[in-house]
Amino acid sequence: MDDADSSNGCGIGIRGVAMAIDAVVWFALMFVAVYVVAAPTGQLETTSEGLNADLQGGAATLAFALWLGLSVGYHTLLEWQFGKTVGKALVQIRVTGDDGSPPSLRASFVRNISRLVDWLPAFYGVGIVALLVSDRHKRLGDRLGHTVVVRS
Hints:
By secondary structure, this protein is mainly α. The chain has eight helices and four strands, in the order ααββααβααααβ. It has helices at residues 3-7, 12-41, 57-82, 86-90, 105-113, 115-118, 125-132, 140-145, and strands at 44-47, 50-53, 93-97, 147-151. The strands form two sheets. A two-stranded antiparallel ribbon has the order 1-2. Strands 3-4 form a two-stranded antiparallel ribbon. A hairpin with a 2-residue loop joins strand 1 and strand 2 (50-53). Helix 2 packs across helix 3 and helix 3 (57-82) crosses helix 5 (105-113). The longest helix is centred in the N-terminal third of the chain and has 30 residues, at 12-41. The chain is elongated and about 50 Å long.
C-alpha cells in the first residue's frame, strides 16, 4: 500500500454514507435479535399482517443486548477479516492500522465497542467532533484502536 493512501483519513461525508448503508444491516440485525428472543419466550405472534413481537421487561433487555452484540460483532469481524463492512465496501473505503497494516482483531473490537461512546450524545456527536479536530480524520474509536479509515 502507498504511504500517501494511509496518511490521510476519510472525512465525515464518505464515512457518513457508509454508516447509513450499514444502518440497514443494523436494522436487519435488530429484527434477528427481537425474533430470536421472542420465539422461545412466547412473545411472537402471527397476525394477518405477519409476525409481531411485543417484547417487554427482561426479554426486551435481552433482545437489546443481543442486537448490540450482533452489531458490534458485524463491524468487528468484517473489519478485522476484510478491512471493511458492507457500507465501507460500497463507498470504497476501508479500515487499516495507523501504519497501514490490516487491523488486528483487538484493534477492530476496540474501535467498534468505542462506537457506543462516539454515538453520544446522539447521532455520533462525540465521533464527529473527534473526527473534525483530528488531522487524520479519526473518531474516538479510531484513536483508541490505533486505526484509520482510508480510501480503498
